[in-house]
Amino acid sequence: MNLRRLYMVLAVLLVVWVLLPIFLIATLAFSDRPSVFAWPKGLLPQQFSLETISFFFGVEGVWRAIRNSLAVAAMTLVFSVLLGAPAGYALARYRFAGADAYRLLILMTRAFPLAILAIPLAVRFIQLGIYDTLLGVALVHTALALPFAVLVTSSLFLSIPKELEEAAWTLGCNRLQAFLRVVLPLALPGLAATAIFAFVISWNEVFAATLLTLRERTLPAFLLTSLNDSPLPFRFAGGFFLIVPALVFIFVIRRYLFTLWGIASR
Amino acid sequence: MASIRVENVEKTFGRFKALNGVSLEVRDQEFVVLLGPSGCGKTTLLRIIAGLEQADKGRVWIGDRDVTLLPPRARRIAMVFQNYAVFPHLTVYENIAFGLRMQKVSPEKLKANVERAAALMHIENLLGRYPAQLSGGQRQRVAVARALAVEPEVLLMDEPLSNLDALLRLEMRAELKRLLAESRTTTLYVTHDQVEAMSLADRIAVMNAGAIVQYDTPMRVYQEPASVFVGGFIGSPPMNFLRLRVEGQRVRLGSLDLEPPAEVGAEVLLGVRPEDLEVYPAEQPQSFAAQVLVVEPLGPHLLLTLNFAGQAFKATVPPDFPAAAGQTLWLRPQPSRLRWLEPGSGRAFATG
């Protein structure tokens, strides 16, 4: 029983550690200016006001950064699904030489630190003429999101019995028709989750976006570079705006992430 | 409707030889069961006929078409899978209509076929439901209806009853038999359940280790097994095999004097089914003595395990037969039901 209590305490600490900053950022983003600057800050929500948020959106370059972020995230989403889903399908359905090695290699790409890659990547991008373009950033983000896309979709396709496809074949479908009529409708929620996850990865990514752009900043890159010389309300509002989409999306697709991580859900 | 002809099909998975040059003919409108233990290659053979698996060697004919290289969709077959493979995102109606929609039949024919197939399987009242709202038995009915709706030339069934519970399986078995006798579709049915095979088949193809070891009517397969394997696999309890010495072209079994086939060697196996042994509590002429080891009351009869010269075998007697462990009984096999087999190869000698 003591062990159980210890677990509970640890769990509560962990939850507080994660949630407290989010809570503070959220409450202060919706407070008026005096309470943002007040010290010590109260734990409970202060004067509710949209002043901070509207100030944030009024700052020069914010809208453009948001537009860039959306465009990059959208491109990342499309690339990840279009490249990741076929790879995941192949991993799930075919036994081919080196399948296991391939699966491992996909994960290895995530173990490779981006910091080492960044300089050569920047040089190469300049040579290719895609430095400081949204496409360039989206390509790097796709590389980051792809391992997840491949692994999630592969477990997704694995969960759809092969017999369903075979039944479709015997009933007159070719492979593409069977995929479109049987597999795709069943995989759609999971594919949507994969897409959203790729979107979130791109939306939150700051390192590559900062290094590979000068003028075409995404929102995290824009905030990172302007954080030091911007007022406190701007930081809170910006932080809030970065966190929220990620939180919402992750919450929506949590079931699929659990299956990816092998945790029994439902 | 069409016949099926399989010629010398071979299939290897890695190092495992699943099919070892199998040939099989199924006549038009015939119901043939592929029976064998798991891993004998029966499902692989069925999948090769369906086109879901490609044979390494050999050819497959459906009717007079060589379908060896055709994809499943061009073979005019339908298949029922062990796990039903009913499409979970479609209603029962759309499931049954799936194959017809792919064939682009007219809306009138589609509706008529779906309703006829649903009526055959008694699922007319389930047409609007989704598979998740159905029981296992109902899903199975949908799977069969979906296969029948496309009016296939050949119906392939892969252990369709094995996921049902025992009672439901019994019920579906009788229903399938009625249904397929009505629809007169050429059917190839895979199972490892010998009772299912016996009850359904026009002919049974018994498979073992990637080859067909006997292909005959159920009663012939039961009464005249081609080998020790067939005799032991079919029948519950299986056939008894007594190893006996041959002396001067005669075999002595107690006071019983038997004449084995002319081509026997020094020893021979005598195969006899437990129910083909007449059992007497007192000594009889033309019989042999054996000690009772175990008595198992099974309801319709008693199952005796007996010992004859160090060899255990089984016999069945009526439930009121006075039998106890340790007792000596006299047995006489029915002469017409004896089966002589070669001890080395396990193969039966040809009977005259």
TrEMBL record, chain A:
Point out the gene that encodes the protein: sugB_3
Give the family from UniProt.
Belongs to the binding-protein-dependent transport system permease family.
Q: Can the keyword Kinase be found in this entry's annotation?
A: no
Q: Which UniProt keywords apply?
A: Cell membrane, Membrane, Transmembrane, Transmembrane helix, Transport
User: What is the first-listed, main subcellular location in coarse terms?
Assistant: membrane
Q: What is this protein called?
A: Trehalose transport system permease protein SugB
Q: Identify the InterPro entries for this entry.
A: BP-dep_ABC_trans_perm (IPR050901), MetI-like (IPR000515), MetI-like_sf (IPR035906)
Its GO CC terms are:
plasma membrane
Q: Name one GO biological process term.
A: transmembrane transport
* Pfam families the UniProt entry points to: BPD_transp_1
Keyword Nuclease among record annotations: no
Automatic annotation (TrEMBL), chain B:
Q: What is its EC number?
A: 3.6.3.20
The record, for PROSITE patterns, names:
ABC_TRANSPORTER_1, ABC_TRANSPORTER_2
Q: Which Gene3D superfamilies match?
A: 2.40.50.100, Nucleic acid-binding proteins, P-loop containing nucleotide triphosphate hydrolases
User: Which residues are in the ABC transporter domain?
Assistant: 4-234
Kindly give the CDD domains that the UniProt entry links to this protein.
ABC_MalK_N
What GO MF terms are annotated?
ABC-type transporter activity; ATP binding; ATP hydrolysis activity
Query: Which GO biological process categories is it annotated with?
Result: carbohydrate transport
Q: GO cellular component annotations, sorted alphabetically?
A: ATP-binding cassette (ABC) transporter complex, substrate-binding subunit-containing
SMART domains given in the database record: AAA
Could you tell me which InterPro entries the record lists for this protein?
AAA+_ATPase, ABC_transporter-like_ATP-bd, ABC_transporter-like_CS, ABC_transpr_MalK-like, ABC_transpr_MalK/UgpC-like, Mo/tungstate-bd_C_term_dom, NA-bd_OB-fold, OB_MalK-like
Residue runs in coiled coils: none
What UniProt keywords apply to this chain's record, in alphabetical order? ATP-binding, Hydrolase, Nucleotide-binding, Transport
The superkingdom listed in its UniProt entry is Bacteria
Top class in the EC scheme: hydrolase
Under what name is this protein listed? Answer: sn-glycerol-3-phosphate import ATP-binding protein UgpC
The species this protein belongs to is: Meiothermus luteus
Annotated gene? ugpC_2
